[in-house]
Amino acid sequence: MLSRLHTISVLLSICLSTNTLASADINGKEAILARIGDEVITAQTLEVRLSHLPRDIREQYSTIHGKKKFLEELLRIYVFSQEAKAMGMDTDLEFKNKADEIINAILSHGYVKKMVFDPITIDDSEVMTYYENNKNNYMEDAQIETSMIQISM
């Protein structure tokens, strides 16, 4: 397994040294950055995976060096995943239960986002109208708080 990872690392270095990562389209075809078994990682796949990251994390991978690092991390995930499947870990009951929990959490999050948050759109004029109609709810009378410490000598 480590020799596979080393081979992938060498191929990745060749790929990156030829600027394949910098160019998403080679001769009208999508640039293939890596192939691991049946899995193919293209420049477009890499960009899509990066786009799903939070902005502050995505910025860490915005340079060619950063994209190389992200691709290496993806390759590790793919290789380790394939090795785990080869060992039969994906058929283990405890693993399946944990995977089901994670899938359910992702589905639940996606459902709430799609059905609750995505349909909500509020423009600035609505906010201003609401504020103007409810100003009293956001105002408080001026208040003064005093305290005194008296020391006798």
How does this structure look, described?
- Helix 1 runs antiparallel to helix 4.
- Mean pLDDT is 82; it is low at 24-28.
- A hairpin with a 2-residue loop joins strand 1 and strand 2 (29-30).
- The chain starts with a helix and ends in a 20-residue tail after the last helix.
- Helix content is 57%, strand content 8%.
- The longest helix has 25 residues, at 93-117.
- The strands form two sheets. A two-stranded antiparallel sheet has the order 1-2. A two-stranded antiparallel sheet has the order 3-4.
- The chain is elongated, with a radius of gyration of 27 Å.
- With 153 residues, it is mainly alpha-helical.
Unreliable segments (pLDDT under 50, ≥5 consecutive)?
24-28
Number of strands: 4
Largest sheet: 2 strands, antiparallel
Summarize the amount of helix as a percent range. 55-70%
Radius of gyration: 27 Å
Report the span from N to C terminus.
Answer: 83 Å
Q: In percent terms, what proportion of residues is strand? A: 5-15%
